[in-house]
Design goal:
The complex is a heterodimer of chains A (about 475) and B (about 130).
Chain A: H1 13-46, H2 54-78, H3 90-111, H4 122-133, H5 136-158, H6 179-254, H7 263-294, E1 301-303, H8 305-322, E2 326-331, E3 339-341, H9 343-360, E4 366-374, E5 377-384, H10 418-428, E6 432-436, E7 450-456, H11 471-476
Parallel strand pairs in A: 2-4
Antiparallel strand pairs in A: 1-3, 4-5, 5-7, 6-7
Chain B: E1 3-7, H1 11-23, E2 27-31, H2 34-44, E3 48-52, H3 60-70, E4 77-81, E5 101-104, H4 109-125
Parallel strand pairs in B: 1-2, 1-3, 3-4, 4-5
Classes of the chains: A alpha+beta (about 475), B alpha/beta (about 130).
């Protein structure tokens, strides 16, 4: 296959997407062209007195039908043409379309008077379109061929070596015009073609260059983010090491491995141990979120969401019982459709929400989990009758290190990282999470919180990477392009 | 009782672990870097190895464990990790990580003793 594609575009999804969309656009435009050509021919013949010769009339009708036929063929094949650079791809299809169009146009122009044809302006239009998708050299060659062929035919026609097909009804005096007119016309026509190609080409190249710059900037940004997260991980580990050691030593003393200790000292040591535990929890949460940010989710497995919920609820059962919490899981979907995601991450997100609910719900509280299908996505509603979230805290609730203003810090320990992690994970799988307080089931004393999560069933890793071209994806969504 | 080698670069962790294990009647030998750790295991042939995953380099513990296994040393290895297992992304027991069990830092004396006893029991059965 002829390498039509610039090197950088080989794996550049947007480039291929644009080509495919343009191909479809050309097909639609071509149907319009057929209609217009037929209208031109028939109205010229029967309404406007163009005085087409029978040859002209038949030729124009035939070419209209030919354009229609090859357009149908292209439209059908288009669906099976992918975006693999080394094989026959959509760019080759564009090239074939352009060649067919130019041949048809040349025939139409020839049968309507060549130099005198009002239709020759369409050549310029084709040159501009060609410059948008095809490599420069190909378009220049095409422009050269058209100019030479056009000039040659005009001269041959003038000296009677090929049949003349002027539209007699369009002129008041005799054709052809003077030789000077013809030569001037051909020169200007050629110039027009090349200038159009040059300008269109230049603009397109510049646009592509901009895109390239954008792309490398984006890559650099991603790299910087990863470097930043790795730096954080490194520092947190360094800080964690001495805290861990301190914790171990305190534990050792409390457990009397070093010898008997005073009861008052033991109390203080317990307090010290608790404080180091808080620090460790915070450090672990920071590690978790940094790891999440540099994690490239490459695989997605099928998950039975009901089972996942049940197993996570089981883990909280003891606490649920001691607090006499009513916990309900309600699957309202028609079928238990499996969801594609990473089990460990999804578990982490949901267990975070669940333990939050259990933590902030009072004695005899209610936790209700609803599963529904909404707009082809899995919709999870997570409501409780806990302490709720004050209005001023709601917008910041997913921010790292943020804890709502109504939390009694001596009663509920926490790092303020849990919900940030949840949001990070849900968004990683193309989902969305919103928070509402008071919750759907809350009352004045127990306002509670509702979390609404929507998750696509078919999570595709790398979905947001516009720079990766996925041939399979394009072919399976062919109707969208 | 058993003879246990502890390899960790943090002197406080070495100290704390030794203290706990000695109180249970075990003999303990320590090393504070992978090289010395390798040497004491080769020369003293302990019944159990306790190995920290991170020493000078983040994966030192893994490499040392792999080295032991490659050389046919089948002594059970208990690994200290400081990475939260909750996220589960880092390691599990597999070919890549040829260890028998993990203890997550901070180490609780009780957990350490339990895991050590369990591994020693398995060894006896074998």
């Amino acid at each position: 296959m002829i390498p039509l594609i610039p090197e950088w575009a080989h794996h550049y999804g947007e480039f291929w997407r644009a080509i495919r969309i343009r191909n479809l656009w050309f097909i639609k435009l071509r149907y319009l062209a057929v209609v217009m050509l037929l209208a031109f021919t028939i109205s010229g013949q029967y309404i406007f007195q163009f005085y087409f010769t029978s040859n002209q009339f038949v030729a124009l009708l035939t070419i209209s039908i030919l354009i229609l036929l090859y357009n149908i063929v292209i439209q059908q094949t288009r669906k099976y043409v992918g975006c693999i650079p080394d094989k026959f791809n959509c760019l080759h299809l564009s090239l074939i379309q352009m060649a067919l169009d130019l041949i048809s146009l040349m025939i139409v122009v020839y049968y309507t008077g060549l130099i005198e044809s009002p239709l020759h302006l369409f050549f310029i239009f084709h040159m501009i379109i060609g410059s948008l998708i095809l490599p420069g050299y190909l378009v220049y060659i095409t422009a050269g061929i058209i100019s030479v062929l056009f000039g040659l035919l005009a001269m041959l026609q003038r000296y009677g070596l090929v049949e003349k097909y002027f539209i007699i009804g369009l002129y008041t005096n005799n054709r052809p015009q003077t030789l000077t007119y013809d030569i001037l016309f051909i020169i200007i026509f050629t110039l027009m073609l090349f200038i159009s190609v040059y300008i269109a080409n230049k603009i397109t190249r510049q646009l592509y260059k901009r895109e390239q710059q954008l792309r490398s900037t984006l890559e650099k940004l991603n790299e910087a983010e990863i470097t930043k997260q790795k730096y954080i991980i490194g520092i947190v580990h360094e800080v964690k090491t001495p805290v861990t050691a301190t914790h171990s030593i305190i534990d050792l003393i409390i457990n009397k491995f070093v010898g008997p200790i005073d009861i008052e000292v033991e109390k203080k040591l317990h307090r010290a141990k608790q404080r180091t535990e808080e620090t460790l929890n915070l450090l672990n949460d920071i590690l978790r979120i940094s790891r999440l940010k540099i994690l490239d989710v490459k695989s997605a497995e099928e998950i039975d969401i009901v089972k996942l919920f049940e197993s996570l609820i089981d883990k909280q059962l003891e606490l649920v019982k001691t607090k006499s919490i009513t916990l309900e899981l309600n699957d309202k979907r028609a079928e238990n459709k499996k969801i594609k995601a990473d089990t460990i991450l999804l578990e982490l997100a949901i267990s975070n929400l669940l333990s939050n609910a259990v933590k902030y719900v009072d004695q005899n509280g209610i936790i209700e989990i609803l599963l529904e299908d909404r707009d082809g996505m899995l919709f999870i509603e997570f409501s409780d009758t806990g302490i709720g979230i004050p209005k001023d805290s709601l917008p910041k609730i997913f921010t790292q290190f943020f804890r709502a203003s109504n939390i009694d810090r001596s009663k509920h320990s926490g790092t303020g990282m849990g919900l940030a992690i949840v949001k990070e994970i849900i968004e990683m799988f193309g989902g969305n999470i919103v928070v509402k307080s008071p919750s759907r089931i809350g009352d004045e004393q127990h306002p509670g919180t509702t979390f609404e999560i929507s998750l696509p069933y078919n999570f595709k890793p790398n979905r947001y990477d516009i720079f990766v071209v996925n041939n399979e994806d394009y072919l399976s969504n062919r109707n969208e392009f | 009782m058993a003879f246990i080698a502890i390899i960790d670069d943090d002197p406080d962790i070495l100290d704390a672990s030794s203290l706990v294990l000695k109180s249970k009647g075990h003999d303990v030998i320590t090393a504070n870097n992978p090289n010395d750790g390798y040497k004491i295991v080769k020369s003293k042939k302990p019944d159990l190895i306790i190995l920290d995953v991170m020493m000078d380099e983040p994966d030192d513990g893994f490499y040392l464990a792999q080295k032991f296994r490659k050389e046919g040393i089948t002594i059970p290895i208990l690994m200290y990790t400081s990475v939260s297992k909750a996220i589960g992304l880092d390691f599990g027991k597999s070919e890549m990580v040829p260890v028998d069990d993990f203890v997550e830092k901070p180490i609780s004396p009780e957990e350490l003793v339990n895991k050590v006893e369990a591994l020693l029991k398995v060894k006896e059965v074998k």
